[in-house]
Design a protein that fits this description.
alpha/beta; 5-stranded parallel beta sheet; 8 helices; elongated
Amino acid sequence: VACVGAGPASLACAAELAKAGYKVTIFEREEKPGGVLTYGIAPSRLPQSVVDHDIAQVKGLGVKFELGKKVKASDLEGFDAVFMGTGLWGSKFPDIPGIDLKGAAAADEYLKKARSGAKGFNPGKKVVVIGGGDVACDCAVTAKLLGAEDVKIVYRRTLEEAPGNMTEFQYALSLGIGITTNMAPAEVIGTKKVEAVAFDGRKKVSEKSGLKLEADTVVFAIGQGAEDVSALAAVETDEKGMIKTKKNGKTSVKKFFAAGDIVNGGKTVVEAVAEGKAAALSIIAFLEKGVK
């Protein structure tokens, strides 16, 4: 069995398959396995040593890892079944002026560089993080812990409406990170690099509020999208590019299964793991049926 991607869903699926006696190969385009565990969660919340320990357990079951390899359809031809756990790594930016300026980044890119210790990575001195989820908090906390002098989170709705965990927001506040709500990004200002970010407030009956924050770095944590998987298999997807599945990870193409963020749109690691395990059972049933 081949597993595409080395995130939580794939690791869980591979482990279950290996324990059942199947030979499993995980293909991962990055240099390290773990997916969002390695590249998308702040070290303050999830130390890399914990991730490495879990991956070592999977390797100990006999699972083979092909790292730093962008898998092609031809690589999957010799496998009896394929699990797709590619996650969500398509960056999202708002349609506003200035997002192409140096210093503007998507959350996944920012966290990946921060966690991997990318050469030359600079967290910024004055950092504005746009978003209201746990990822926004992760970006802000990471910037602060890496030495940023001034960090602010700006969200377009109220804190009560934010999808992020309140404990994460409280932790951010405890580090001196400011949180501003009811402000949506309108423009990233600068010549060649980011100098400030302008926001528009929620429209009221008789007035319109605004905000302008000085910044050298702006991070957009407003969600992630699905990358095109059609080159691997002609599986059915929805309008957002998420893979459509039937019960327990079955896709529209025989021998292809999927689970995790690429299916559910980006939920928790726990849910990705549970879905990966369920898909493994589907794969086993499919292969056993084929044998009979």
